[in-house]
TrEMBL record:
Protein name in UniProt: Uncharacterized protein
Domain of life: Bacteria
Lineage, top ranks: Bacteria, Pseudomonadati, Bacteroidota, Chitinophagia, Chitinophagales
Native organism: Niastella populi
C-alpha cells in the first residue's frame, strides 16, 4: 500500500512539473459598437440643404463646466441610434446660427434621405465667444424611466431614444411613439 501511495505521489509531482509552453488562448472580446467620429456625408448634405446657414455645434462650443463633468472623448454635439426601430440610423444634432440653437432629430428613410423634427428652438441663449453651451445629447437605451417631478410619471422605452443632458442630468427623453417623435419631460 505504501508503494502505491509513493508512486502516485511521484507521478503527481512529475505532472505538476510539466509546463505548458503555449500561452492560454485569449477570451473572446465582447462586441463593441464603434460609432463614427464624424457625421456621414449624407447627413451633412441633408442639413446643408435644409438649413444652409446653420452648422453643427462643435465640442469647442461647450463650457468648461461641461467638461468638468465629462471626458473629452464624449461627443455631446450629436448622437446616432435607431429611435424608430426601422433598422436605419437616426441622428440627434445640435445646430447653431449666431446666438440661436436648435436640436434637430433626423430620422433615416429607406431612400438614404432623412426627414427631421426640430424639438428645441431657442434664441439668444448661446454665446459663441463665451463657449457657454451646457446641454448635450446622448443615446437613451431601452429602460423603464420613472420620475416624481414635475409629476409622477413613467416611460417604458422599448427602442433607443435620445436623452437631453443638462450637465450630468437627463432632463428630457425623445422617443418614438404613435408614428412620431414624442418628448418625455424629466424636469
Amino acid at each position: 500500500m505504501a508503494q502505491w501511495i509513493f508512486m502516485i505521489s511521484i507521478m503527481l509531482l512529475m505532472a505538476c512539473d510539466r509546463r505548458n509552453t503555449k500561452p492560454p488562448a485569449p477570451a473572446p472580446a465582447a462586441a463593441v459598437t464603434h460609432y463614427p467620429a464624424a457625421l456621414p456625408p449624407s447627413v451633412i448634405n441633408y442639413l446643408q440643404h435644409v438649413y444652409p446657414q446653420w452648422r453643427v455645434v462643435e465640442k469647442s462650443d461647450y463650457s468648461k463646466t461641461w467638461w468638468s463633468f465629462y471626458d473629452t472623448s464624449y461627443n455631446p454635439c450629436w448622437a446616432r441610434t435607431d429611435i424608430n426601430d426601422d433598422q436605419l440610423a437616426d441622428y440627434a444634432l445640435w445646430l447653431k446660427k449666431g446666438t440661436q440653437l436648435r436640436l434637430a432629430i433626423c430620422t433615416g428613410e429607406a431612400n438614404r434621405l432623412f426627414s427631421h423634427t426640430i424639438v428645441i428652438d431657442t434664441s439668444d441663449v448661446f454665446n459663441e465667444a463665451a463657449h457657454n453651451l451646457s446641454m448635450g445629447i446622448a443615446v437613451a437605451p431601452p429602460a423603464q424611466i420613472d420620475v416624481v417631478k414635475p409629476r409622477i410619471q413613467s416611460l417604458i422605452l422599448k427602442p433607443n431614444g435620445f436623452a437631453l443632458m443638462e450637465l450630468e442630468e437627463r432632463t428630457r427623453i425623445y422617443h418614438w411613439a404613435n408614428e412620431s417623435i414624442q418628448t418625455f419631460y424629466m424636469k
